[in-house]
Amino acid sequence: MTSPSIVWLRDDLRLADNPALRAAIDRDEPVVVLYVLDEESDGIRALGGAARWWLHHSLADLDTRLRDRGSTLVLRRGPAARVVRDVVADAAAGAVFWNRRYGGPERAVDAELKAGLRDAGVEVASFAASVLFEPWTVQTGAGGPYAVFTPFWKACQAMPAPRAPLPEPREIPGPAAAPASDELDGWGLLPTRPDWAEGLRETWEPGELAARRRLRDFLDDDLADYDRARDEPAAGVTSNLSPRLRWGELSPYTVWHETVRSEAAERHAGPAQRFLSELGWREFAWHTLFHFPDLATRNWRAQFDAFAWPRLKPTHLEAWQQGRTGVPLVDAGMRELWRTGFMHNRVRMVTASFLVKNLLIDWRRGEEWFWDTLVDADAAANPFNWQWVAGSGADAAPYFRVFNPVLQAEKFDRHGSYIAQWAPDSGELEPLVDLKASRQAALDAYEAVKRAR
């Protein structure tokens, strides 16, 4: 009698460099590939709208690729610990494999499930697949987590090089009768009333093969200019790999090794190292979340609890969300976000700074909006970067650093191409606030934080 293996996928929707999948195949038993939509376990954050759109298409692509190799994707919805145990029983499985997660609620679910399955005699193993350096392996000399990026990244670079990525399996032996599966369309992940995803469909092609093509195109065509033009939103030289990494259509190991081995990296060592340091920033975000699980709701720097946010002006928040602030670079970024589910990183910093330090709106409001509208919003980078801009996070921009959106546009959108594309009418709108006066108001309000240090 066979005892199938279950591979429980989470944010690792790929076949190549998937250690959990490789372990199941190596067990030489039928493989059940499972995805659980868990919006019920304690502390698990429900996905935003743009993320749900991406998930639907990435799962559909993955199912097609699994069928091509002799397997299929089993979809279930509900609290993950219960659902996985149900599938183990349905399949009479002898082993369960997954790749590790690093958020607090997710780790709690995984630990409880692992203990329960082992007590029931089921083999369980988890693997490193989503970060290059697992958070507990990088420590300061005092044995604690890092709070500043530069020494963190130097410590990572002093460690053994990231392992080589695993090859994609050619065959994945499915069971004679797979456990019952939900219909993907029945999950309602796609918007219908209204269907606001036209811009996402025009911009993105989710899935592992598309992710690999984008990595190759970036390395071949854009890496050489990355160091010089990465901050120019109209230049089009950024990698656009963040949603691929967020959903695990590419592993960071694949991105790392493909970059290091590329001909472009040999010719352009500086831009390659700059790009790899952006992977390091992603690592730092997960490092911070692991040690501070409440990153999306609490100030990392406790002294920022002393900041007295003024009463919210809903009209200001709505104008920011809709890209109607009268500040052209801010409006261009917010409209790009709504249309495509994405925003250039330099513009993300500018729009976030404007919300927090010119409109004096709590960074958590902005984080929630990005969580709902970004296709690449993940539990680490999204709150981490918002706290960085607000000044309340790890390695944060000083509280007195306020991005001037006019000067930022003059420097990084010199010809106005980005603004012309996304917000050509913004200059005709009356600005919500005076930039100079609102900056000074923010500095005055931040004095309470300064005194609390």
UniProtKB/TrEMBL annotation:
<keyword id="KW-0456">Lyase</keyword>
<feature type="binding site">
    <location>
        <position position="226"/>
    </location>
    <ligand>
        <name>FAD</name>
    </ligand>
</feature>
<dbReference type="GO" id="GO:0006950">
    <property type="term" value="P:response to stress"/>
</dbReference>
<feature type="domain" description="Photolyase/cryptochrome alpha/beta">
    <location>
        <begin position="3"/>
        <end position="132"/>
    </location>
</feature>
<dbReference type="InterPro" id="IPR005101">
    <property type="entry name" value="Cryptochr/Photolyase_FAD-bd"/>
</dbReference>
<dbReference type="Pfam" id="PF03441">
    <property type="entry name" value="FAD_binding_7"/>
</dbReference>
<dbReference type="InterPro" id="IPR014729">
    <property type="entry name" value="Rossmann-like_a/b/a_fold"/>
</dbReference>
<dbReference type="InterPro" id="IPR036155">
    <property type="entry name" value="Crypto/Photolyase_N_sf"/>
</dbReference>
<dbReference type="InterPro" id="IPR036134">
    <property type="entry name" value="Crypto/Photolyase_FAD-like_sf"/>
</dbReference>
<dbReference type="InterPro" id="IPR006050">
    <property type="entry name" value="DNA_photolyase_N"/>
</dbReference>
<dbReference type="GO" id="GO:0003904">
    <property type="term" value="F:deoxyribodipyrimidine photo-lyase activity"/>
</dbReference>
<dbReference type="GO" id="GO:0006139">
    <property type="term" value="P:nucleobase-containing compound metabolic process"/>
</dbReference>
<protein>
    <submittedName>
        <fullName>Deoxyribodipyrimidine photo-lyase</fullName>
        <ecNumber>4.1.99.3</ecNumber>
    </submittedName>
</protein>
<feature type="site" description="Electron transfer via tryptophanyl radical">
    <location>
        <position position="309"/>
    </location>
</feature>
<dbReference type="GO" id="GO:0071949">
    <property type="term" value="F:FAD binding"/>
</dbReference>
<dbReference type="InterPro" id="IPR018394">
    <property type="entry name" value="DNA_photolyase_1_CS_C"/>
</dbReference>
<feature type="binding site">
    <location>
        <begin position="376"/>
        <end position="378"/>
    </location>
    <ligand>
        <name>FAD</name>
    </ligand>
</feature>
<dbReference type="GO" id="GO:0009416">
    <property type="term" value="P:response to light stimulus"/>
</dbReference>
<feature type="binding site">
    <location>
        <position position="275"/>
    </location>
    <ligand>
        <name>FAD</name>
    </ligand>
</feature>
<comment type="similarity">
    <text>Belongs to the DNA photolyase family.</text>
</comment>
<feature type="site" description="Electron transfer via tryptophanyl radical">
    <location>
        <position position="363"/>
    </location>
</feature>
<feature type="binding site">
    <location>
        <begin position="238"/>
        <end position="242"/>
    </location>
    <ligand>
        <name>FAD</name>
    </ligand>
</feature>
<dbReference type="GO" id="GO:0003677">
    <property type="term" value="F:DNA binding"/>
</dbReference>
<keyword id="KW-0274">FAD</keyword>
<feature type="site" description="Electron transfer via tryptophanyl radical">
    <location>
        <position position="386"/>
    </location>
</feature>
<keyword id="KW-0157">Chromophore</keyword>
<dbReference type="InterPro" id="IPR002081">
    <property type="entry name" value="Cryptochrome/DNA_photolyase_1"/>
</dbReference>
<keyword id="KW-0285">Flavoprotein</keyword>
<dbReference type="Pfam" id="PF00875">
    <property type="entry name" value="DNA_photolyase"/>
</dbReference>
